[in-house]
Amino acid sequence: MKMKNRGNVLDDLDWRILQVLQENAKQTYMETGHHLQVAHSTVHDRIKKMEEQGIIKKYTAIVNLERAGAKYITAIMTVFTDPKESGNVAERLSRYEAVLEVFTSLSEELLIIAKVIAEDQEKLHSFIAHSVAPLPGVLRIRTSIVTKKYKDEMFFIKGGHNPDESP
Length: 167
Description:
alpha+beta, Arc Repressor Mutant, subunit A, 2 domains
């Protein structure tokens, strides 16, 4: 990994290490090194540097809630806001446990898009009505309940490190 204008520039090996970690972060440095045909000490050093630089934020388990028997619904909530308040609204939404992801988007108007999870429609409605709608700056909310999930990936590093590449 090289530093460029105070930013991190990952080389091909760093990207390949990240790809292996995303596929199975439980692998040892030895296994990862063997897979990539480099010394395990190189893998260890590269991973430690990426952790120190904040490139690798954390290691986690991805739980399939449906298979675990959890009953829940997922909704995509689009929040239309007063542009002066959108940052505050996004920050406040990020603090709720029911909100899994928060994004801002500037199209014709500034939007906040949030992925929300709830036990049922009634709890989703209550959360939106009592926690989201009253936030200062919220103009209107559009909610779409997810009825079927076709893909659920967390990462884009698969065959390379260019997210624009087509499969």
